[in-house]
Amino acid sequence: MTAPASVLVTGGHGFIGSHLCARLVQRGHRVRILARPGADLSNLDGLDVEVAQGDLTDPGSLPAALAGVTRVFHLAGALKGFSEEALLAVNRDGTRNLVGACPPDLERFVLVSSLAAAGPSPGGPEPRPPGAPDAPLTWYGRSKVEAERVVLASGLPCVILRPPVVFGPRDRDVLSYFRIAARGFLPVPGTRERWYSLVFAPDLADGILRAGEAPLPSGETLPLVNAEPVTWLDLGRHIARALGRRGRELHLPEAAIRAAGQVAGLAARLRGRPEIFSPQKVIEMLAPAWVASPEKARTLLGWSAGTPLDQALWQTVRWYRDHGWL
């Protein structure tokens, strides 16, 4: 019996990447991750993975990490920065370095991009129309589009995945909303009803794994989203229920949110450390909606997000509490 394929996961020690590594190990794959020296690997405790030290922005560090690899799952990237150029340096140029170091006989390159690359949907629960041209709103979204273009132009057999908002155990970005809900408040941006696609991290990991194995035509781009979008307020109510709390709605004026984003951005610059909540994030928050269709992934991958929302939120809350985050 031949040994299972060896795979490289960039960002494998991160929130989503660690869930993917767990799935890959469970399937019997030999997993290698790319990590910078001194990276926090605690998300991988107990998993049998090999660590290759390297950095996407250092091309010379990548060939050794890719030696003997037949599949690459590229999750690493920059979510925040003080300029579009800072995000492009990692998300576009780092991706270019990675594909340039891939072996010529690579079987599949999976790029985990973002729904931010596509741009928002028009509004309401209807998904963004299939085939609509990409219209990213932010530095991050544009940098992910550029990363996708690099992969598509590389000639490697590839698939591009676009997840929406991702939540689940180990996530810190959505954690702040759980903490606010735990205090009994459900903040809602503005008075307009905004709809969002979501995905639970373990479900997303299953979809990424399938994308690495399914016989897809090279260059396919697929959203990986829950079947049913939710409004911001409904999500808050579901989170409050998972917490065992009753939440009080707080409708925040859009002008106040923009002002808060500017203040947060200035404070981050003074500290010299970019944060998720920023003027760029406010642009995304105040968009009409972020909804994509799950049909393409269901048809081509046989994948759907199998964990009901309330169960997924309850599992997330339990993990947060078990680890002292709530």
Automatic annotation (TrEMBL):
Any one Gene Ontology molecular-function term assigned to this protein's record: aldehyde dehydrogenase (NAD+) activity
Ketoreductase domain span: 5-142
Q: Which GO terms describe its cellular component?
A: cytoplasm
Query: What are the boundaries of the signal sequence?
Result: none
Which Pfam families does the record cross-reference, listed alphabetically? Epimerase
Q: Which protein, by its recorded name, is this?
A: NAD-dependent epimerase
Q: Which organism is it from?
A: Mesoterricola silvestris
